[in-house]
Amino acid sequence: MRRPRRRLASTCVGTVTAGLLATGAALAAPGEGAARGSRASDTAMGAYLDYGPNGVARIAQLSRWLGGKEIRVGHTYLPGDVWPAIEGRVSFLEDWAKWRRAKDDRMFVLNVPMQARNEERVPDREVARLIRAGAQGKYDVHFERLAERLVELGVPDTVIVLGWEMNGITYTHRCAPDPENWKAYWRRIVRTMRSVPGQDFRFDFAPNRGTDAIGWTKCYPGDDVVDIIGMDSYDQEPGQDFDDQITQPYGLRHHVDFAAEHGKEISYPEWGLFRRGDNAEYVRRMLQWIEQHEPLYHTITDYCPHGVWQCKQNPAASKVFRAAMTPVPDPVVPTPVVPTPVVPTPVVPTPVVPTPVVPTPQVPTPQVPTPQVPTPAVPTPQVPTPAVPTPVVPTPVVPTPVVPTPQVPTPQVPTPEVPVPVPTPVVPTPSPVAPSPAVPVPVPSPEVPVPASPAPSGSPSPGQSPAPTPPAPRPPAPPLNSRQWCVPLNFGEWLSKMVGTQSVCFKVDWPF
Known about the structure:
CATH class of the domain at 30-325: Alpha Beta
Order of helices and strands: HHEHEHHEHHEHEEEHHEHEHEHE
Mean pLDDT: 77
Number of helices: 13
Distance between the termini: 151 Å
CATH topology of the domain at 30-325: TIM Barrel
CATH architecture of the domain at 30-325: Alpha-Beta Barrel
Strand content: 5-15%
Shape: elongated
Strand order of the largest sheet: 1-2-3-4-5-6-8-9
Radius of gyration: 70 Å
């Protein structure tokens, strides 16, 4: 975007009335400098630093340069070359909207052109034709789109400086070629933008200081479509010093008085150095004026030749501006220390009452004799241990059976088995010489006779059944009270048939 051009005001100065001179004479005398920590530093302040993202980024840097001064106003311009730019179809609006939304007390100020080709030096006849077309509604759609764009970005409370410096000779949206249609065109734009749902815009009518091409009051569109009456005021003609800038026709005093008559707040969207170079007196006096009249906001134009921070060719003015705007903490008033009187506490002696010593009576403990009871001696009976003889059991000798070669057996006729009664052995009772424990008497087992293998006989004739094999005769039972015991040997069913029934006999000497 091309930066706004500054220009010399018209050299034609109107006749100053006696009343205006009287008003100027009543102004407060200029001081040596703006008071630090004054209301000028409390008013919402900003600076035009760049139109795009660089301008947003430099706000924090300017704040640090001013010792932490809070920059509450962000100020930029929409390009006036083509209509899409005036509709807000530029990417840098998003950066400014984001900065504005970060804090509730911030203010976003946006200069909006009223015509395309705004800085192309269009002649007055063409400007008049464009103004009439705007008054008839030809450009309404462009401003409706701009309003929708701002609401969409979350900045519906934007301060819109519409058609700024309309009393000059530079911009295509100037008022002088057709003041009446210009006012009708302004009113149409404001009503179009206010018709968009969600908007809360404020419209700032901001002429250039002085008469310029036309007295700016002749372009005022009406109180119902204006919220703020601003003024752009640079250090330039007409006027030789700051007092002339106050008292000139349509100057600073006229601006303040006109706004008061219409019940509007004032602003200074653009101010700064210009034709007189590094003029520290101008910066000092402008800050005093701002402190005295408390505008809604002010933004210094901070690029060369106007600026005091980015433009290094104005060191004296820069020093004054920085000293005035840097916040100074309130002085710390020390709290007087009032000594607390020390009231001595009287020491009351505590009387010492002697405690009487009561003797403890000594009660003698009686000695009770313990009776001596004799313990009777109980004789331990001597019980004789009987000697029990251990019976000697001879180890039986088991003969190894001789297994004969098997012959073809001859079937034998079984002999009916006759049961042999087993005699009950009579155990003699020993003489009662001395008591002795009873020794179990083993019961002798009957001796089983081993049958003799019968001699093989002839083979049975065909058709005849073999005769049953008679049972083997049992061995004779030992006589009663016999000392011989026989134990039968079992070789299994098959081998017993071959070798017969065998037994082992042994004798036992009983102690009778």
